[in-house]
Amino acid sequence: MSKIDEVRAQMVAAMKNKDKERKDTLSMLLAALKNRAIDKREDLTEAEENEVIKKEIKQTQETMDLAPADREDIREECAKRLAVLKEFAPAEMSEEEIRAQISAVLSDLGIGEPTAKDKGKIMKELMPRVKGRADGALVNRLVGEALK
């Protein structure tokens, strides 16, 4: 079952339960997924669906972060939206899993004692392995720790 079908089924359930906030969030996500499929002119792959979901999460998080401190209504709405969107997001890699990938890349490249000069090579090899499953800033921080 594609994410579009899954989101649509959840949206129908939310409408039946008269959960307007959940329905609105799912409707927004469904529209984003459909628009991406229309732009591509074919069905989305799972990776592309996950990319759309992550983009929606990121935009909602930014809205929440940029909302003025006295606008609790906006913050609450964003928090509820994030909770719904995260149900459909792919599982993130843990720090231990990322460190294991870093170790694998170091052994593949034959780098015993990595230095700052090696960071570009390491990141070039590592990022395709963790794309969509790990936060880039976290990966960058962990690679930096491995270089020390």
Number of DSSP helices? Answer: 7
**Mean pLDDT over the full residue set:** 88
Distance between the amino and carboxyl termini: 45 Å
Work out the number of β strands: 0
| Beta-strand fraction estimate | under 5%
Low-confidence parts: none
**Whole-number radius of gyration?**
19 Å
Main sheet attributes: strand count, strand direction, barrel closure: none
Q: Helix/strand/pairing class, anyone? A: mainly alpha
Estimate the global geometry from the Cα principal axes: elongated
Work out the helicity level: over 70%
Write the element-wise H/E pattern from the N-terminal end onward.
Answer: HHHHHHH
Please explain how this structure is put together.
One of its GO terms (molecular function) is carbon-nitrogen ligase activity, with glutamine as amido-N-donor. Keywords: Coiled coil. This is GatB/YqeY domain-containing protein. Pfam families: YqeY (PF09424). 76% of the residues lie in helices and 0% in strands. It is an all-alpha fold. Helix 2 crosses helix 3, helix 3 runs antiparallel to helix 4 and helix 5 crosses helix 7. The mean pLDDT is 88.
